[in-house]
Amino acid sequence: MSSEKNKNLCEGCTICCEHITVEIDKPKTREEILKLVDYLRYKDILIFIEDGGEWNIEFKTICRQLNEKGLCKIYKNRPKICRDYHHDKCERYGEGEFYKHIFRNEKELLDFIKKNKKLNKIFLGQ
Q: What is the pLDDT, as a whole number, of residue 75?
């Protein structure tokens, strides 16, 4: 992408600055499943499974470094997590959904667990 196009790539958009996502281990025990269920009881937290099977937890929260125009105040010295973020993963420029499953609350996760034979066996303690 040309430097001129890249210069205005994020203009008018702060989507990637309004959450933090952390990869987590796929649950292997009933206790780990219940911990994820507990996380989903909190407002502005979701869990998703990427197309490649990676599990993630996302916290909806706005970066403190955004100015009143929605631009990064520390862009030249922004953290590695921001420098590593590529626009092809972005909701604005990416193609399609980046996740296979998304859970916005505990019911959605528990419904998924019940339908997944392996996770359901773990959850039921079998």
A: 87
Q: How confident is the model at residue 3 (pLDDT cuts 50, 70, 90)?
A: very low
- The whole domain housing 113 covers 3-124
Regarding pTM above 0.90, the answer is: no
Inter-residue contact 102 to 57 (CB < 8 Å): no
Q: How many structural domains does the chain have?
A: 1
